[in-house]
Known about the structure:
The protein has 210 residues and is of the alpha+beta class.
Amino acid sequence: MLDGRIVRPANTVHLHFVHQFAVKLAAAVCAEALTQGYVASWRRVVMTSNMHRCGGARAVRAFGLVLLAAATLIAPCAFAEAPLGITLDQATILKLPEKVATIVVGNPLIADVAVQSGGLVVVTGKGYGSTNIIVLDRTGTVLMERAVVVRGPTDQTVAVYRGMERETYSCTPNCERRITLGDSAGYFTSTLGQSDVRNNQSVAAGAKGR
């Protein structure tokens, strides 16, 4: 209840806002002021609001605290980097900040890194899922943290299911066997074995020709 006290113009705090978000923050300040026994009235005129209460200094401090808290909450969202998307069995280049001493990969089974000269790192997708990369300096300060998401191939692939068994083929345009995580054990092992034999024969043939 109002006790008839007169709010004098000398205790008027003029808050000029540049957008609607600031008006909402001021409303929160006024609500807090009312709990302290202050009398508040609002006048909205083209993005300008007047707040009347006894003891203007405390309202200014409260408004400053609310604005600082809002900036603290908004800043991480505004500057957060989007996840690094990689296709399985493919690589991408990531630029590192300066003074890097340590690179930590959350799950090397999902993504692996290889440091190159010029402050670059090659990130390769090893398995499905998401992980993260953390870059530290010599003092342990975090210089960069980036989420990594590895997805399946997006090119022309065909998955053939024989009951619960899966086989993957790459059709570009002829369909050939392709080893992909999730294929049946027999298909995966057989295709991998053929690839190993072929690679070994190529290496042997190259050694004889020297």
